[in-house]
Amino acid sequence: MRDALMNMIIYQGDTEFASVEQQRNLFANRATEWDRRALTRVMIEEMRHGWQMCALLIDFFGSSGKVEAQKCSSAARLRTNDCSALQRRCR
């Protein structure tokens, strides 16, 4: 049960970060300023959810959770050019 839950959290976090990556193309091709602001809010929420999944892994799954959170957050940093700026906005 523990492993299944951990895997679900890992996949959820990865999906959240991947969603931000996919939406970057939409951001670059936005139709209006309103669209850009709306998409920014969505991307910030997706990134925040990804970081929350990493926090769950770290807080509740010991050393194996820390390893998986590091993998997930490292992949997110590779995917996004300005991940830290989005993370600062989430605070």
What does this structure look like?
With 91 residues, this protein is an all-alpha fold. The protein is built from 4 helices and no strands. The radius of gyration is 14 Å and the shape is elongated. The relative contact order is 0.17.
> Any idea what the shape is?
elongated
Distance between the termini: 32 Å
Series of H and E elements: HHHH
Query: What's the gyration radius in Å?
Result: 14 Å
Task: Supply database-style keywords.
disordered C terminus; 91 residues; 4 helices
List the helices and strands and how they pair.
Elements: H1 2-28, H2 33-60, H3 62-79, H4 83-90
Helix pairs in contact: 1-2, 1-3, 2-3, 2-4
Briefly summarize what is shown.
The chain has four helices and no strands.
